[in-house]
Amino acid sequence: MALTSSDKSASLIDQASHSADQAIRATQQAANHAVDSAGNALQDLRHQTTPILERASEQVSAMAHRGLDSVRETTHQLRLKAEHASDTTVGYIRQEPVKAVLIAAATGAALMALVSLVARSRDRN
Question: Which of 7, 67, 68, 76 could join 3 via S-S bond, C-beta 3.0 to 4.6 A?
Fold first, then answer.
C-alpha cells in the first residue's frame, strides 16, 4: 500500500508537531532548571551574608556602646574638674577675701570696658 501525498503531508506535520512538542518540553525543563539554580544560588548567598550582616550589626552596636561609655566618662571627668575648680575658688575666697573681691571688681571693670568698646565700635559702623 502506497502512501498518498496527503498521508505523507499529515505524517510530516505529525513529526513536526512532535518535534515542536519535544523542543517546548526541553525548553521548559531548561528554564525550570535555570530558575531552580538561580533560587539555590540566592539561598546560598543569603546563608553566606546573614552571619556577616549579624557580625557587622554586633560591631556597630558595640561601637555605639563604647561611644556612649566614653561620653559618660568624659562628662564625669568634666564634672569632677568643675567641682575641684569650684572648691579651689571657694577655698581661695575664704583664705584671701579682700584679694578675691578686688580680683572680682577688676574683672568686672575689665568686662565693662570691653563691652563699652564693642558698643562704641558698633555705633560707629
Answer: 7
Domain coordinates in residue numbering, the chain: 34-124
Chain position carrying cell 555605639:
64
Whole-angstrom Cα distance, residue 73 to residue 75?
5
Widest distance between CA atoms in the chain: 141
Per-residue pLDDT reduced to its tens digit, 34-76:
999 999 999 988 888 899 999 999 999 999 999 999 999 999 9
> What does the pLDDT read at residue 77?
96
- Provide the whole-model pTM: 0.47
Amino acid 15 reads Q
Q: Count Cβ neighbours within 10 Å for each residue of 8-45 and write b for 16 or more, e otherwise.
A: eeeeeeeeeeeeeeeeeeeeeeeeeeeeeeeeeeeeee
